[in-house]
Amino acid sequence: MVKIDGLTTIEAQSMLNGITPSNILKQYNETYLLSQEQMQFYKNNGFIIIKGVLSGSALAYTRKLIQSAVLIQKKDDERSLKDKTPYQQSFLQCGFLCWNFPAVKDYVFGKLFAGIARDLMKVDGVRLWHDQALFKEAGGRKTDVHQDSSYWPIKQPELTTTMWMALNEVPEEKGCLYFYPGSHKLPREYIDIFNNPHKPDFLNTGKTVIAPLEAGDVTFHTGLTYHGALENKTKEMREGMTVIYFADGNRFDSTDARNATHKSCSELKHGDLINTIYTPLLV
């Protein structure tokens, strides 16, 4: 069974059955003003690191909330790390938490984060694609290089962005992210990180930016940006929470059968506007 920071299933259930405190709910919906330099950096490089987006009681509450969701979702998995597939050794992956655990919805729907996504993409409105916690166990293997949007049936992948929040300190040795700056301008490629991971040849000459984070820091990267994460060489869990956004008005693209059955697009037909119960307008 997965063990997280001494948390018990009873404590986790209690946390998930609770109501978000009003002061924390307020922080989730504050306005974050990006500088022109930050927006230009994101445009040029395809990613950005933003320091201290959450702190104090809001960070502590959020960390325990996501820890609780991961613990409950993985409570029946008693395998050791060595008994998992290489992909599963990269992280504990728990998606759609805001739909499985309503207490998580206030965080995932937060206008603070969605507003940053909107401003980085320079669009009028953004919708939720989905959320997922990515906890890398002690000794967990690297996360292979990939482009997020290659797994999504979205017509305009350039108008997607992923927020990755560090819930605890994520130094290099704990498995932090790394990015290939400017790689969102390179060819799009579906990399089968589930069964046959590889690094495209055109990345061999590219430089990487290692992105160690403090708790409460976030990164945003476009759905076209090539990135990965290092192995966790520590004895502690690396705790990351992601929320993925796309521009309102994007359409369902089912031309790639490998991702045409995505839960967020259930019952849509090719070319339909993506507007389902799983993809609400956030800002």
Which range does the strand content fall in?
15-25%
User: What is the class in the CATH system?
Assistant: Mainly Beta
Low-confidence stretches: none
The spatial strand order of the largest sheet comes to 1-8-5-10-3-2
The number of distinct β-strands equals: 10
Number of domains: 1
Task: Please state the average pLDDT score.
Answer: 96
Instruction: Classify the helix fraction into a percent range.
Output: 10-25%
Give me the secondary-structure category: alpha+beta
CATH architecture: Sandwich
Biggest β-sheet strands, sense, barrel: 6 strands, antiparallel
Radius of gyration, CA atoms, in whole angstroms: 18 Å
Query: Which overall shape is indicated by the principal axes computed on the Cα atoms?
Result: globular
Q: H/E series, N to C?
A: HHHEHHEHHHEEEEEEEE
CATH superfamily: q2cbj1_9rhob like domain
How many H/I helical runs?
Answer: 8
